[in-house]
Structures are given as structure tokens and as C-alpha cells.
Amino acid sequence: MKSSSNLERVLKKGIFAVTAELGPPKSADGEVIREKAKILMGYADAVNITDCQTAIVRMSSIASAAILLQEGVEPVVQMTCRDRNRISIQSDLLGAAALGAKNLLCLTGDHQKFGNHPEAKGVFDLDSIQLLQMVKDMRDEKKFQCGEEMEVEPRFFLGAAENPFADPFEYRALRLAKKVTAGAGFIQTQIVYNIEKFAKWMEMVCEMGLHKKVYILVGVSPLKSLGMAKYMKNCVPGLDIPGWVIERMEQAGKEKAKEEGIKICIEVIEQVKKIEGVSGVHIMAIEWENAVLEIVEKAGLLPRPKIV
Amino acid sequence: MIVGQQKPFSEIKGMLKGYKKVLIAGCGTCVTVTFGGGRKETTILATSLRIAAHAEKSELEIREDVVPRQCEARFLERLKDNIKWAEAVLSLACGVGVQTLAETYPRIRVLPGLNTSFIGRHFEGGIFQEYCGACGDCILAKTTGICPIVRCAKSLLNGPCGGSQGGKCEVSKDTDCAWQLIYDRLKELNLLDRWEIWPPKDWSTSWHGGPRKLVKEIGEA
User: Fold this and answer.
1) Which residues of chain B have a CB within 8 Å of the CB of A208?
2) Are A229 and A245 in contact (CB under 8 A)?
3) What topology does CATH give the domain B2-118?
4) Prediction pTM value
5) Looking at this predicted complex, what is its ipTM?
6) What rounded mean pLDDT belongs to chain A?
């Protein structure tokens, strides 16, 4: 055990893990976090808190994580390389660990061009792999990136993202291997709808033996509407929405769209569960936290284990 | 080459407001090649400003000259008489030229007529693309001659990121993913197995390390 994280314990025990995602508010209102925490409590082993996702300013991941901890929900802090250099990242992570955060997802971050401050200066002092390596060394070697030693190290269960649908496809498993070498203990993938392609990727991952070294949590997301499905297909880089998804959302019509979205999501979970090397799911239902409850319940993933 | 783009005409007119005698100084090196501030651009701008002044019945007088290189003080000597005459100089050189001019003639207002864009390459059809970020620690040996510092939107050293799709960058469909290019080249050269994790870069040699200065011993020929 690299940390005392609940998520790490669940995965180590071989239990199919569930993580969810929480988008912090675009305001200083901590109650929003508390309310969402209450909804998700007992339905996920840990809850990710995005770090200004799509480069839109929101309450910080670490501050939101501290609130989640007060509510008794285990957070997965997300840290991107877009807004902070190595000095700031290390400093923030020491603070996050001191506040009790046990899980950390290391990301490069969406480009600032996509956000609400497109004129901002992007930092990108490090990339996600260098970030992983840096935090791994802080944890395992008690060393800062510069080589200086520290007395009390931040003990994070380290995670990374991977997108099986990005190009070059044949390199995606190799990139995962790099993230594992750099320190990733768990992976949360891009949202999966194209199960065939995902399975092909997992085959490569298993061939390389990576599934024995890292826990892979499959990203899933319920669609709210046909419009959302089309938007994701055409406008979100790195997402692969096959035609059958659009067709089913179309057939469902406006009134039953949400229902169908949840149904598809559950079907995806059931299918990826059977794929060798899959250790859990990461449910992304931002601003629709109630959907998580239904998905987790109907996918037969309740009750969540209580491990102390 | 240093690529420069002329500022919008309205912005240039705004800067020149109130001056009656203006010298437009072009530069004969980089910005000539990159169509920003050579002889042709200097003449066109001077003519446009004269026409505008005439239409607005303002008393703007313009002289123009192009020096071989504005970034070298010795080439600025010949502007002496025109600068004595003028109230302001509009430089069509890169930022180095503007500053050299301002330092050489500290008593006259020197205004930039260009936005210095980047160090780049010219393609057919007037397309320029950034190719070098002058980071001070060249990594092109490892990246098979493709610079991810400026050609990857996130300056990744361990790319490509999850936004690389069909060989294009997520930031713009007109931009090639630098890491896809690097990957293809590594594969072609049979170097994929040497593709290891790249540690954090030392940015102190780039402009993040403060103003840079280079002292060279120049040997005798």
C-alpha cells in the first residue's frame, strides 16, 4: 500500500471499483460541494474533483477535496500542469496531503484555449508523465523534483488518465506503460462508448502485462440528450461516439433521452466488466450526480464495500 | 527567420496621431523575407498613410528609408538626417530593430509598426509557421528534427496527449500534431525503442530564466 486510500484498498482486494466525478462550483459556495457529497456518499469508493476542467475557473480541486473529507467522502484530487509550475504543484500537493487527501490524478490539462480565459498564459512546465514521476519521487524517495529531501512525504495513491481513442492508436498502450513506469497506480480512461476499440486497446495492454501493474478504471458517462451525444461526437476532441449511440438516443426521443442515456451507460459497464484487465469504472456525470446513484444501483455495484 | 506582421492600419494611425513629420524605417533582412517590413511594405504603408492624411486633410509628411539590418547600430547611421527632420520614427523591423533604433537615437520617439510574431519557416502561399522557440537547449536530436516546444500546443516532452486525432492537434484542426510527426519519424528511423520517459526540462536557458546574454570570443580570421 502506497497510501491509506480507500480506493487503493478496494482495488487491492480485487473488488470492482467505482469512482465518480464532481465538478466544483463556479463560485465560492462550499455548500454545493457538501450537497453533492451527500448525494454520492456510499455510491462511490472515491470521488474525483476536477481541476478547472476545460480550463474554466472553478473552486480549486484541493479546497473542494478538503470539504469532501469533512463530509466523509474520499476525494481524488486532480492536478493539471496547465496552471502551475513545479514549485506551485509541489507546494499545493504538500498542502493537499496535509489536509488528508490520499488519491491524486495527474493530468496535463485541457489547453487554456478551450476555457473562459483563453488569453491566459499556459504554464506546462511539466507534462502529465513528468508530474507522475515527480510525485512518485516525493512519495517514495522523499525528494523534491530538485533533489532536496523532505521530512514528511505526501503519500498519494497516484493515478493518470489515458485515452484509448486518441492517435496514434498503436502507441496508446505504450504510453500507458510510460505512465505506469512514471508512477501511476490506477488509470481512469477517457469515456468509452466504442467498446470494440477499447477491447482492442485492452488486449494490447494485457499483452504487455500492464493490467497486472496498474488498475484500470473505465470512464463512462450517461448521455442526457441527443444534442449532447452529437456535440460529444463532433466537437469534443479525443471522444469516440459510435453511430449506434446516436441512433439509440434519436430513437428514444426527447422525453426518454435521459432514461436511454443511463441505460446505455449501464450496458457499457456490463460489457467492459467482462474485459480482461478492467478493475472498475469511473462514472462522469457532471452536474447530474443523481444519475450516478441509478447507474451504480442498476449495474449491480451496490453496496460499496466499507474497508477500514 | 523572424516573422513579423504589420500592425492594423488603424492602430498605426492611432500611434502617429499628433505627429506631422514621420520617418518610416524598414528593415532589409528577416522582415523583408517574411513580407513584414521590407522595401515593398514600407512604400505601401507610406503611401497608404499619405492617402489617408490627404483624405482627412491632415498635414502629415512622411519620409521612408530601408536599412540593411535595424538590429545593428552601424546600419542606422544613414538615418541620421531623416531622424533630425522627423518628430517620430515608425519602425517596421522586429522588436530587436525597434529597440536598437530607440537606443541609437534616444531623443526621438520610436514606434513599432510590426508585431514580431515568431521564429518560423515560410511555406508556399505566404504561410508562415513557428518552428523554433529559442529555448536555449536544443532537443531536436531526440525528437528527430521536430520541435515539440513550439509545435505542440502544450510543449509536451512525453507526447502525444489524448487530444491528438487523425494527426491533428486538438487546439486547431489546421495544426499537425507535433508528436504524431515525431512518432512517425521515430518509427521510420527504427528508433521507437529508444523513446524513453523524458525528465522535466531545464527552462532556465529559455526566457523563463530572465534576460539572456551571450558572450562569445570572436577569434581572428
Assistant:
1) none
2) yes
3) Rossmann fold (3.40.50)
4) 0.95
5) 0.93
6) 96
